[in-house]
Amino acid sequence: MLPVFSLCAWSGTGKTQYLEGLIACLKARGLRVAAVKHDGHGFQMDTPGKDTWRLARAGADVVAIASPTAAAVLSYRPTPLSRLVESIRDVDLILIEGDKSGPWPRIALYRAASGKPLAAEPENCLAVVSDVPLAVPCPLFPLDDPAPLAEFLCKEAHLCP
Fold first, then answer.
1. What's 89's domain CATH number?
2. pTM here?
3. Closest of 102, 100, 113, 109 to residue 127, by C-alpha
């Protein structure tokens, strides 16, 4: 089973920016990383008018596209996040952005200026990332430097010495 970690925070906290830096730190260690974005609102990933969009509008339940440099599979039916995560192969670990309630170890991000609380109870978190000191019962990492969390995740997942 691949190690999976879920980074959760309220909108505007800086999850994506932090995750970009974390992925870069993990890649610098030679790890293969999958990133899964959880979206609770619905999204449009395909471009209206393009072939894949037209095939989906014609009724295809799944549309895939492949090129020499990338590939994508779009499913046009409800798919549980856990099923999507289970389908990922050929990586060392999976990072989920934005899922607050899944079964994976949570890493809560906190930005004081957001005015919002932690998106998960610290007692239920593997770690917390913050731009201010917090009294939490789990490891606390700086929001402005993802390298310490990358090291921690490598050790948690038994991927580095």
1. 3.40.50.300
2. 0.89
3. 109
